[in-house]
Amino acid sequence: MLSQQAEYHDEHELRERAKRWIAQFAPYLDTIESFEASELRERLKTLEELKREGQELLPLLPQLWNFDDVAIADTLRSAVEQLPSIESELRRHLSLVSPGDPLGEVNLDVLQEKLSERQARQELGLENSQPVPIVLEEVSSPPNPSVGTTIGIFGLGWTLFTTFHCIMMVGGMFKAFGPLALLLLAFYSMFFMVGYKTLRTAYLAFSAESIQLDRRTLTITRKAGPFVSEKIIELAPDTIPAIESTSPSNSHRGVMSAGRQGLNEQIKMTDVHGKEVSIAGFATRESREKLCKKISQYLAVRG
Description:
Blueprint: H1 2-25, H2 37-57, H3 70-97, H4 108-124, E1 136-141, H5 145-177, H6 184-206, E2 208-214, E3 217-224, E4 227-234, E5 242-245, H7 253-256, E6 265-270, E7 276-279, H8 285-302
Antiparallel strand pairs: 1-2, 2-3, 3-4, 5-6, 6-7
């Protein structure tokens, strides 16, 4: 009889102890955003006691065999599993509230990123106080209506003449050779391609081109009146922006040079697939050089 009373007393004591532990643990699931450094240190101190007592209680939980005790045992087990993540969260928040606190936890990824940024600044000769934006946003090429008009007139005339000549030739040859005359379309396709590229160049000249660089994600936006196009590109990790000259085809070399700001030079980079990316084709040489330098510095620090 005495042994049964002792066993019941131990079980009752264990149940009450588990309930007290859960009651002490419950506030740790509340938000800690408004906590001061002293409150966070106190919680970390109490958490150490909860960790120690929780490890003592875990092997004793099988003694709580009553049906109503299942929820207590399951809750305590789940709570003990969450203690490491709660401790880490408290330490990270403490490092934000009180930087340099020995009980705080430093985010090594963020720290490594800052070290890399500092090293990149030193390599570029930048002062640590010199700001580098989180996201680089620039107008890479303003609209150039004069060049666009010149190239557009040439491209439109070229395309219309090619279309007229194609219809006349294919139509006349069709009467003599039948469907074989359609093979001439392969020949005319080269001329239509020149017309398409010329008209596209005119569209680019009329467009206001702007870029947004978020680390190595480049967004190129072109706007010409109501027409807006956007292209998102992932730049290659080792790409280095450089100003390079283009080589326009002989068919429209003359009209391209009609404006001082034709596609003679562009800022070129490489995407993750190895394809060439070109911007700032209609910018002035001075603004193109400044933009190229800004992109180089941004990629070195943020990329």
